[in-house]
Amino acid sequence: MDKQRDFVLRTIEERGVKFIRLWFTDVIGTLKSVAIAPAEVEGAFSEGLGFDGSAIEGLTRSYESDLLAHADPTTFQILPWRGEVDPTARMFCDITTPDGQPAVADPRHVLKRALAKAADAGFTFYTHPEIEFYLLKSSSYGPDGPEPVDSAGYFDNVPGGTAHDFRRRSVRMLEDLGISVEYSHHEGGPGQNEIDLRYADALTTADNIMTFRTVIKEVAIEQGVYATFMPKPLSGQPGSGMHTHISLFEGDQNAFYEEGAQYQLSKVGRHFIAGLLRHANEISAVTNQFVNSYKRLWGGDEAPSFICWGHNNRSALVRVPLYKPNKGQSSRVEYRALDSAANPYLAFALLLAAGLKGIEEEYELPAEAEDNVWSLSDSERRALGYAPLPTSLDQALRFMEESELVAETLGEQVFNYVLLNKRKEWQGYRSQVTPFELKSNLEML
After folding, report:
1. Domain 1-102 has CATH 1.20.1250.20
2. Is 84 annotated as a binding residue?
3. 423 among the known binding-site residues?
4. Residue pLDDT, tens place only, 225-269
5. CATH code, 112-418
6. In 312-395, at which residue ranges do the beta strands (DSSP E only) sit?
7. For the chain, which terminal residue's Cβ has fewer other Cβ atoms within 10 angstroms, N or C?
8. pLDDT in tens, 123-181
9. Residue 314, marked binder
10. 3-state secondary structure of 52
11. Strands, E, within 97-180: which ranges?
12. Is 336 known as a binding-site position?
């Protein structure tokens, strides 16, 4: 760590960095930033930077408000969009109390705690997110809703289109920040794009997702358009998901791989999937944390609505992708409910906890879904045991408040804050009179 600190201090001097932004997130996953001068960096490493935690959503209670942000030198990167005028860098922070204890409501710490539990069981947790978002002409909208930048579809090549330049610029910027990109393409909705980040350990991935959202927003501003990670911004068009590929490693061996097993999927992998399925409802209020998230989950297209798993079945909640011969290390499972607006630290912590619970308790994996689950009737789905995911944030919160797994993984303070904050959102949503009701009822009744 000392070597890393020296490297940061040397780079700041050599590159003439004028400002260093210290980044962390609140419980909902909003990025927070405070800029310090180069002279303050050593202090940010050794003592941390003091701030009022009670002013940050869910971070602390008012009577214990003093917190410290400790810069993590391993996350140092120069921000490419700032250019050569006043070069600016960033570091993610770990939040502590004045006596050096991790702040219980720091989302990064919640994930670190879950990863430590996995490490005690001999596992490292890797994730690979496919992040979807919409590019709109602006953040304003008329009676027909927001206006996308194009009317292209899945994998479409749009000569001279905004999205090409946008994706090229974004990918270059992400690579400059040390974030490896695997694919980028136009998605199914008009103005919808997807950029997939390369596999990394879950903490690095969560940091990368927070950086990714900032990069996408910055490039959009630069190009005169607007980017949104809202789960379902356009009625009648696909929502934006963040399908996440997951694997556990024991040392350098993929714990999900077993040669000769069905789909080359090991017992550990099967128990892990069973854990994801059994606890899917309980973790939904975090993996799908907004009222709008449930418009995506129940809006058709490729969003999963029912709790089941399948081999290469895109209608299932958990998918086991096609096995590549001689590539056992690439064995993985894909969780398809997560959306692009989730707090990645809390979401990954809960996905890991659910899977580990399945391994610990040796949950039995139910039979796989071979059919397109959406095309079955309700009674067929019931007969096959495919329970629905929550249909609303309200329902998701009811599952969550009964969950020991979620309470234990998030810790009491984060657990209570999420419930409180999200109930408030649901009440605000429920009490409004929508254009739909006015259009349907005003003249008729």
Report:
1. no
2. no
3. no
4. 999 999 999 999 999 999 999 999 999 999 999 988 999 999 999
5. 3.30.590.10
6. 318-320, 333-335
7. C
8. 999 999 999 999 999 888 888 888 998 886 665 566 556 667 888 899 999 999 999 99
9. yes
10. strand
11. 124-136
12. yes
